[in-house]
Amino acid sequence: MSFRLKAITRDEHLAFVAARPSASHMQVPSWGDVKPDWRAESLGWFDDNDRLVGVGLVLFRPLPKLKRYLAYLPEGPLIDWSAPDLERWLEPMLSHLKAQGAFSVKMGPPVVARRWDAEAVKTAIADPRTRRLRDAEATAHEPGAFDIADRLHRMGWQQTEPGGEDGFAAGQPRYVFQVPFAGKTLAEVRQDFNQQWRRNIKKAEKAGVKVVQGGYEDLPAFHEIYVETAQRDQFVPRPLTYFQRMWTALTAEDPDRMRLYLAHHEGEVLAAATMLTVGEHVWYSYGASTSRKREVQPNNAIQWRMMSDAHELGASVYDLRGITDTLDESNHLLGLLRFKVGTGGQALEYLGEWDFPLNKLLHKALGLYMSRR
């Protein structure tokens, strides 16, 4: 028998998430408020005893001039992915979303497939024969993940290929870098940093870099250097209003859901970053830095402060988010990967995002449109 699935309240959704050690920040009710171009709905799976056993935040994006929608569950849903009968979970979801007018469903199972420790990543970068991280020998494999992928294929789900040259997926990153905190003191976390990272933290302290926690009123200062970062690193920046809406929505749900940090030196903001928290999972979300005074190492200083605060909050993992899969020296994102590897953490490959075309014609048309953007 399938689980019973229905729309649930925000409070029911939030209570379920709060009872779990970890859930994506894109699977909390307030994330729907961050995305005003999408209509959000909280879904709940109920067992035969009418107990809530799974939830999902689904975002509906309308097709122009049609009452048909792309339904998207970023880094979700929050269900038992190890269950041998995944159909019992996913089939009622597809039926519900089809009845809501969805022509295609996209989801990102929060399932890790492979892990590479810092040494394995450094070895892969140094080997000119290894062009992509996915081709390097993994430190650990999660055999259950490949079984899940096989079952999804058999059910008709289609795996989205990893993104273009930089390895980022079209939606959420398939490859991320995380620093495990569970069972470690803060001193042990720092001891795992490479020599350069430890030296840079000391250099920032000696130079007088001060990292402070900011508020809503400091978002314009963050955004100013974020735009500078976007120009330097070749990406399109989000407007200030996005971060103001994000702050208002997330902190209304939980005062600690989003934090802002700023690294000051001699009265000038040199770096800033946002941090998100759900349960024991903490993310470095958006970062920004100016090209001035880089020698005082504000980026290492701000990350160390955020890690210290995350550890104090009881985090079991500090997530540095997306990394490039491409290890070519010409890739401008390789420097960011080297920076993250210096923390001594590990690279993870998730199962990636999966599509289920409920209307194959409209799904194909969307695919053509996205490929030409």
TrEMBL record:
Pfam families: FemAB (PF02388). Keywords: Acyltransferase, Cell shape, Cell wall biogenesis/degradation, Peptidoglycan synthesis, Transferase. One of its GO terms (biological process) is regulation of cell shape. The keyword rRNA-binding does not apply. One of its GO terms (molecular function) is aminoacyltransferase activity. The keyword Transferase applies. PANTHER family: LIPID II:GLYCINE GLYCYLTRANSFERASE (PTHR36174:SF1). Belongs to the FemABX family. This is Peptidoglycan bridge formation glycyltransferase FemA/FemB family protein.
